Amino acid sequence: MHDVDGLNSGYASALLEQYLENPEGVPREWRALFESGASELVATHPGLARLVELLQTDGNGHAVSAPTTPTAAPAEATAPPAPSVDHELLGGVAAAMALVKAYRTHGHLAARLDPLGSEPVGDPSLEAERLEPKLTPELQRRIPADILRVHVPGETLADVLPALRETYCGTSAYEIEHISDHEQRVWLRAAIESGRYRQPLSVEERKRLLERLSEVEGFERYLGRAFLGQKQFSIEGLDVMVPMLDETIEIAAEEGAHEVVLGMAHRGRLSVLVHVLGRPYESILREFEGERTLEAIASDPEGNTGDVKYHLGAEGTRPTASGEITVTLASNPSHLEAVDPVVEGRTRAEQTDRSTRTGYHDSSVAMPILIHGDAAFPAQGVVAESLNLADLGGYSTGGTLHLISNNQIGFTTDPADGRSTRYSSDLAKGFDLPIIHVNADDAEAALAAVRLAMAFRRRFCTDVVIDLVGYRRHGHNEQDEAAYTQPLMTARIERQPSVREQYATALVEEGALSQEEADELVSRVSTKLKEAHERLKATFGQAVPAVGYEGRIPATGDAEIVTAVSADRLRQLNEELLAVPEGFTVNPKLAKQLEKRRTALDEGGIDWGQAEGLAFATLLVEGIPVRLTGQDTERGTFSHRHLVLHDAQNGQALAPIQSLTDSIASFEIHNSPLSEEACVGFEYGYSVAAPEALVAWEAQFGDFVNGAQVAIDQFIVSGLSKWGQTSRLTLLLPHGYEGNGPEHSSARLERFLQLAAQENIRIANCTTAAQYFHLLRRQALEPGARPLIVMTPKGLLRLKQAASTLADLSEGAFRPVIAEPGVSHEQVRRLVLCSGKVYYDLVGHEARRGADWLAVGRLEQLYPFPVAAAAELVRSYPALEELVWAQEEPQNMGAWRAIRHRLEEALPEGVRLRFSGRPWRASPSEGYPTAHLKEQDRIVREALS
Ligand SMILES: Cc1ncc(C[n+]2csc(CCOP(=O)(O)OP(=O)(O)O)c2C)c(N)n1
Fold this sequence. Notes:
By secondary structure, the protein is an alpha/beta fold. Helix content is about 40%, strand content about 10%. It is built from 34 helices and 24 strands.
């Protein structure tokens, strides 16, 4: 820096103002000063004032000059000339500021985060001696600390520099400067630098921490010895995760949470079950023994598959200083990270009071914790999808603690092959989350990281990430030889004393306890485990108590479910659904459409959207909460729903369904973000934790539901068999061939049918608004909860013939099979059976006209297959010769392959079965509308003639 002509505070302030307005308008030297790490200074006048004050004296207390002929300076800056500027100090201050900024921004690059001792890359900006001007020790001592606005103690830069280095480049490191919220950045800097959350532990706390680490290590090592080579996915190398969870739960309870919902994969899960959820040792030991006594796993009386021990969920109650707290570990599949949105949904359900009309959400009552693998976090898309939910009105949970259990490897894949970013956590930067990296061998620093994270979460209600950097002592699992692929790392790990050993040594050296006492902590655990194991062995041969399943729900029972609703009630609710308060302007075009709903009850023509609204409203007055989400669901993709109205004058939103006079339950409705996997997972989690509610998710078009395939395969259809976990989650999937190409036609009915077994789910495809009304109500009221998959229509939403009358809703029930009305059964020789929209193509076709030997039947429920009703229908045509199954979908898709055997079983002797539909196809439908029409016509003709 050279030739800053002179200074006074008025001049400097004016320059600053000018700089803020237009950086290009101030002299280069000043711009450099303002920009060289002095952004904080620039933004805050007190810092500037102090700088000016400092620079106005030459070190001997003499005032220094102001410009005589300021080139780009404001005209009023006319202080008397004075001797000279302390250029060295001025430059030093700028460099010091740059240095502080560098520590905050890049300090992590020089931090000692790897317990295995790899060298940090460092960064030139962190080296005081390499800056220009050089920050020599003398110069450092001349720069007062207060001008730097740091929070570490010290008078001058020379004092604060080591503290900054220790803070930002020690065994903890921080990435916070990417956060766009100024208040959050400022808070974090102060919290980190002041050491507020890194207060030294008391001797008692240290001993307790050592005891905990001994328990963790003792447990893992006992399992390793007793069940040599069995998979346990040991936590060793990241042992401190357990005390970190202890600390998190303790703080969560202190902040008023009644429940913590935890999601994690295999690594360390058994240790978490025992130590964090309080599962008795015996229950885990039994699982290991179970693999030896095959009988235990081969004899589930209900034909369930069960699951491996490191997938099972559990619930435990833990005492804390602030009272008891429930800790729930969500069951999860192998599919890494798939459980993330499920945990969020579960938590959200716990946080929601569904007895109020809009659902009162209080995020303080439950807290989600997600533990991620370092390979999975950056690479599984569902992570990003889930992070994107965090701040959305319909999804937020008040901040998730993300803990990356970073063992610096994914199975056999090194980070260099596993991600394109420096850190595993980098994705979180894009979500503006603070990231705390911490060395897993510094147990106290790890606890401090939790305290900081929790304080931040409490203050700002947002997610926080802790990247816990450790290692993996035993390879991917205990059957694996890590040295095949990571020989050097494996050898290094063999030399690494455990965190327990390191911490014990440190405490013994400090005199906090003796070596004997430290050893005693270890042997105590092993004794306890041995005893538990002996106790367990003594019970072998006795009946095995059920462990791990969270409340089995009986399948469909005999209870009569009344889905019809009195006409008076429907009239009243219909009026209320159409009512808007004084002064609310409904869009005039929409108002006309809605007006039709007013007369439809008396004149007929209740369409899909209206029937759906009425179904929801009737449930609300019966005390059943409803939650409906999906892409553009408030209006409805096909503009058919309109449960949320927007004032044409001011845009204000209004959902009349949320203020029904007699409603005693919540109606939540939210447009979802453009995600399938996370959104379906979220709703699944919500529905599991809210078994009394009707939770529905709607796809934009059914085709897109395959973006949520993991949630479907791994949770929705198999959760019951694996974990005894089910729900009444309802998927609304627009389906039907209307000439919109391969991707706006099929909700892949065949997939759901293939996944249906043991009455795990229900699948329906209805053809009238009333059927949909009764179906939704039945789904909510049926005592046995099961997920429901509905192929919902597009064209039928407005089709006159698909509309219903008031009597259709106030009488009757859902009919799984419907015979064609107005047909004389005696004459029928061919029954064309179909499902969904193609029914109207068939009955409306010219070939149908006058063919009194033909009837078209509808299968409205595809699973569980209505065996009796289908047989009854077929037998009701005494002259039947042929049954044709007609479908729009190709032969390898749709319902055909799943129900063919059912149809064959239903056929009387001598009646033929024939298929009419698209031929085997790799893509669901034609791309050209004309090709579609031609093909549709062929299918219908072949069925009818
Ligand atoms: C979606 C998915 N793909 C692949 C796998 C197979 N798999 C199991 S563990 C693992 C490595 C995971 O590494 P990381 O996330 O770092 O966790 P770690 O096992 O190291 O704790 C892989 C690839 C899986 N379980 N899930």
